[in-house]
Queue: 3 jobs
Job 1
Amino acid sequence: MTVLHGKTAIVTGASSGIGRATAKLFAREGARVVVSARRGAELDALVAEIEAEGGQAVAVAGDVRDESLAKALVDTAVERFGGLDIAFNNAGVVGEMAPVSEVSTAGWRDVLDTNLTGAFLGAKYQVPAMLARGGGSLVFTSTFVGWTVGMPGMAAYAAAKAGLIGLTKVLAAELGPKGVRANAILPGGTDTPASITNAPGAGPEVLAFVENLHALKRIARPEEIARSVLHLASDAASFVTGTAMLVDGGVSVTRT
Ligand code: NAP
């Protein structure tokens, strides 16, 4: 029996990286998945891959900074698949990397809007649909940056992602009595387009430096993060709520 049999999930940031890997895993585990990001062509390709494997998915392209997208995702889950059980609010950007006094105010606001307000808007519409179902699971993608480690040059990203952990804890406290769990996942370095190891001009020395920051001396594959998201989303984590779960290869504990 697949662990998400009969469940419906929303996955944002599904056009690449961690979100894409998680959407595929959710579908393999029996969930019907509403996938979202701005790049529609990538989403269509993902839906085709999921359907080719016998899964069910629908794409809704849009920007998480837009409140109407949050509503459209939930409406799609309800209309196409009958309700909503799981939401992986994962869309995010690193944004401008600069010391605080050099970060533009517009750049700061954009990172907060995408990573934090985008997730808030998601939850705002997802929660009533989950309550109508009698329960559910919210998972937010945070990071070790700003939680266990202060990384120079990443102020807006760190503030937004640490803010997500605060949002997660409040949601857990508000919704626990009603059967909805809320958790954050905190990946370490992960091999996706957003990773600084894949930034334009980043050579093998950047990868080696980042790998060495981790106790496991490597960075993650997106599929490894997806497996932990699956755990939090599924009934296997039925007593887990309000947690900030490090899936970071030991980057938070390494000093060598
Ligand atoms: P990625 O491959 O670049 O994925 C980011 C996703 O977010 C893409 O699907 C992107 O899609 C979507 N997105 C960005 N801005 C958006 C917006 N305004 N509206 C809608 N969708 C938007 O990178 P990733 O590493 O998988 O990132 C996924 C999450 O993991 C992010 O929240 C990131 O901060 C977090 N994270 C990553 C790492 C790492 O080392 N890679 C570590 C810790 C945490 P479109 O461009 O198509 O919109």
Note: Residues 135 and 188 are 29 Å apart (CA to CA).
Job 2
Amino acid sequence: MDLEAAYAVLAERGAPAYRVEQVRHAVTRDLIVDWDEATTLPKDLRNALAAAAPVRELVLGDLQESADGTVKARFETADGFPLETVLMRHGDRHAVCLSSQSGCALACAFCATGAMGFGRSLTRGEILEQLLWAARTAQGRGARIRNVVMMGMGEPLQNLAEVLAFCGLANDPEGFGLGARSIAISTAGWVPGIDALAAQTLQLKLAISLHAPDDALRERLMPVNRRYPLADLMAALKRYRAATRRRVYVEYLLLDQVNDRTEQADRLADLLHEHLPGACHVNLIWYNPTAADLEASDPDRVRRFREVLDRRRIPQTLRRSKGSDIDAACGQLAVRGAREARAARRTAPEPA
Ligand code: SAH
């Protein structure tokens, strides 16, 4: 849903100013799925909007619901790129995990999206449309979306302009009205994006996927570390902190015998005390199985790791992600066979 294209239609037609508000309300509050539902608008305007700014550009594919109430939706862009969106229930609060790209270029060893390769970046409208789908689905359960996390497919900081434009739309008090602090952007450590984010006035939450406390291991798990090693990354986070005074959320995936030794917990604490003193929170994450040859940490090892962080006074929480029974959990988003499907479409004759 390209809201700006809809506003352009209004401007072109010289529509009165109050139409802007009607359009915005129809899309972000009434959650229309088709312009014909926007009955405050005259019929010819609805037709013009439907032609230039369709409410639904993404094609909804499979929907899967997990035992814990998580719903995963699979979409395809109009030009055939797959993506996934996950709606999570935390009591009566719902959160949605959005994709910023179809696939991902960063190829982290533990992540299914990385294994799928990169398709293309999504537009602000394609990101907004995922939120609108989630809001409608939550509404069907009598709930509202409280939090948005950019933790679906893709590296949001490699698509920063569109992601920020989306955040502005989601945050607009006259529209969806989500607090900036309720929107989290998660990055694998794309340093120029961290600096660009630090320069923003919008008070977004920043999460950094760290996963290893030294370069040798981080490079093995996350190839992006070759381009932006820990020294560069930590320096960027320090600049971000200095510029925004905001807390940085550090994500640390616990991989059995790989990054879960107590010495590694100590290294992690050293790094954080040095670069983000009193300014971070560690989210420890259970590894969700993918095709990678890795395993979730043994609970005893997790306990010892956490004891070290506690002793070193690093605030931390351990979370188990939702929806793993339907491959909707962190790192499990990948559309199997999507590349084949796309290749097949490219070679198919164009419809007459
Ligand atoms: N590219 C961004 C956002 C997407 S990943 C980033 O890297 O932050 C969202 C989170 O899920 C990241 O912290 C990522 O490292 C984590 N993740 C990836 N694969 C996972 C897996 N198999 N199990 C649990 N978490 C995983």
Note: The pocket of S-adenosyl-L-homocysteine is lined by residues 110-111, 151, 155, 186-188, 209, 251, 253, 285, 287-288, 290, 330-331 (CB under 6 Å).
Job 3
Amino acid sequence: MSRTMAADEDSTRVRLAGRRAKRILAASGACLGLLGWSHPEVALGCLAVFVVIALVVLWPSRAGMAQERMQAEARSELVWPGRGMKAIVEALQEPAFILDRGLLLRYRNPASFVAFGNMTLGDPFSLRFRAPELIAAVESAIRNQAPGQATLDERRPIERTWQVEILPVPAYQGESPHFFLVLFRDRTAERRTERMRTDFVANASHELRTPLASLTGFIETLQGPARNDAQARERFLAIMREQAQRMSRLIDDLLSLSRIEMKRHLPVNARADLVSVLRKVQVQMAPLAEELGMTVEFSPVEEAVLVVGDEDELIQVFANLVENACKYAESGQRVELSIAHETERGEPVIDASVRDFGPGIPPEHVPRLTERFYRVSVGSSRAKQGTGLGLSIVRNILLRHKSRLLVQSEIGRGTIFTARFPATASESPIQPLVQYYS
Ligand code: ADP
């Protein structure tokens, strides 16, 4: 027998018992009244008997009261979830709601409050969530009494993507569910990574297609109208060479980025001397600096400054930063390299910086500089043989070194790119990848 039917039967029984009690009282009242009226000497006794009958009939038994209480609880449990169910929902770390069959909100956990703000119990769920896809999924799960799913994209106050699961909560003894658990899982990070990956492929293809289209165009011109024009041929071949070099640079950077990303989670098991790294970069970049009429200055105070690091990768980091400083801050005429010991939140850190005295970078661009293919000016980057991948490579190498890239820039005064390393190299022993025990 179902729980609702049992509750209905109980309440019918109580109603019938009430009616019976009234009838008994009325009948006994009438009989005793008649008897007292015809025999006044026993009238008092009749009244006493009537009071006793009334007390016996009307006094609710303890069992009856307990039964009524249980019935009331049973009735309310069809509307409000029980304490156990609420406790489980509260324990969930992600937003969760309990709805009834009528899509009314019956409970919500603290995480839902943080994510979606206050919602009044008893209000329709659709008052806060209006996305038709989500409401349709909830309605369908309730109708079919089966789990359902939906995706919710919210634009405000911030862009977020939620994976929503609607789960019927099993009721007692095979009864159809009275409540439905609606669970929200934050999928914003996954969605963003997915979008970044597709954007990356689209950008890489676009970057390669542009020089390729130019090459194809020149080949056709050389095969057609300019076939016998020696002067044009020389000019076009020079441009074609430039475009081929651009493609080659881009492929080199893409391969470099993919190699670094593959290694990103592997710990660095070597020490590098930052003084030696910066000296090597200074020598390596001297020809480019000279070509652009610039000087790269470095006057280290210490003989050696050790960090946990892979020397080749760190040379790649600082070569990229110095190359950018030479290319984009030519007007400043010099680039300064430096090493400093600092503290961050009480912890010692080592800063290795590349400073230029060029035009600076507008603040709105700074947070996006390390995104793949991000440039402040696409035209200027292309003109200076940039690929838009340099700072992304720098960031990924530094991430593997548990280091961060800091950018300070002032319009008209220049930019400082700083790689901040934890100062632990001299204290902590380097763990080899494979340990040997004797
Ligand atoms: P690119 O290959 O275009 O140089 P990067 O990732 O190395 O790509 O740099 C991204 C963008 O950051 C550059 O296109 C340039 O606009 C800007 N940038 C980088 N370094 C500097 C600098 N020292 N001064 C001014 N702008 C810079």
Note: The CA atoms of residues 281 and 375 lie 24 Å apart.
